[in-house]
Amino acid sequence: MISIEKAIQLVKQHVKPLLKTTHKPVEKAGGYELSQDIHSPINMPPFRQSAMDGYALNLHDSLEYRLIGEIKAGDGQQPVLKPGEAVRIFTGAAVPDTANAVMMQEKVGINGNSITIQHPIEKETNIRPLGEQVKQGALALKKGTKLTPAAIGYLSSLGIQDVSVFQKPSIALISTGNELVEPGTDLSHGKIYESNSKMLLSALYSLKFYDVSIDKVEDDYTKTLTKLKTIIEQNDLVLITGGISVGDYDYVGKALNELGVEEVFYKVKQKPGKPLFFGKKENTSIFALPGNPAAALTCFYVYVYIALQNLMGRDNNQLPYVEAKSLSAFQKKGDRPQFLKAIYNNGTVEILEGQSSAMQQTFALSNALVFATETTTQIDINDSVETILLPV
């Protein structure tokens, strides 16, 4: 049995970036990282652009100008303005080459075909210059940039239709146990509804990992061995729930050993989630998580999250830790460090009742985990506690 710190170190050490690339339509590339630099195919903006509704002016010494026309956003005409002439113009419209300032409409008086501006104006005022955001051929976004909604919009504004991105891992979820049945079927005595796969699938989706398959295997050694062999060969990351402990019908560990999976560690000194297995088979990472739902999800956030970030080559690979003031008292039993389900809010954290590894209801209310160290025996109200902020 190893420490939490050692387990985290081993996950970071053994899970390497995939470095596989693929092409995606830009509108479907959200959450991916660019696998190469992108240079702008155009100037942005591609023309001198009005920054507001007003009047484009060819400046001269007087405050009065002759109005000769109008330009809306999208218009392609290029009226020629002589000094002392102006056109009505709207935000986003192309400023004529012969105009050298735009006066906002609130500072203009209109008298038929002439206008009077309230004060002199400097050249290029309220005009977005050609290529202000990015010049044609210049670096638009560098390799490794995560494509946020804003980045997708930016690339689309440059006319880019598809991008080369780092491929995300293929992930398999496997739940084990004869007691598990699918929601929607009759719940006979001794059975429970399977929830771990849906819980972990939701966690993966929230992190924008979508290449996920789900399988179930009964507590049968031959079936477990056959299923795991196929799944490990076909995926970059395998998450198994249940069957990893030492019960008579826990076959996962034995099957992984027979398949030649290298055990990096098994059992971590923590609560919940002590019977956690992490191993490697060639380039596939395998986590066997505890069957109890709260323990499985805790291990996902503490260890699997790191593996996912490493697979994507991301440097910031752990969930954020903050110090928070406890609004609750808690008595810790035993010497194992403990992850406590909690609600964090603006620098304070409430440790919830119901810390059992099977308590999903409490976890459903949580947005954080309070970390009680090995030497912690008591948390008092107003104590400063280390808190892990969960993705929301």
Automatic annotation (TrEMBL):
The cross-references to CDD domains, in alphabetical order and at most eight, read: MoeA (cd00887)
Q: Which cofactor does it need?
A: Mg(2+)
EC number(s) from the headed UniProt entry: 2.10.1.1
Q: Which reaction does it catalyse?
A: adenylyl-molybdopterin + molybdate = Mo-molybdopterin + AMP + H(+)
Q: Which SMART domains match?
A: MoCF_biosynth
Chain ranges of the MoaB/Mog domain: 172-310
Question: What's the superkingdom here?
Answer: Bacteria
Principal EC category: transferase
**Segments passing through the bilayer:** none
**Keywords in alphabetical order:** Magnesium, Metal-binding, Molybdenum, Molybdenum cofactor biosynthesis, Transferase
UniProt pathway annotation: Cofactor biosynthesis; molybdopterin biosynthesis
According to its UniProt entry, the function of this protein is described as:
Catalyzes the insertion of molybdate into adenylated molybdopterin with the concomitant release of AMP.
According to its UniProt record, which protein family does this protein belong to? Belongs to the MoeA family.
Q: What is this protein called?
A: Molybdopterin molybdenumtransferase
Native source organism of the sequence = Tamlana crocina
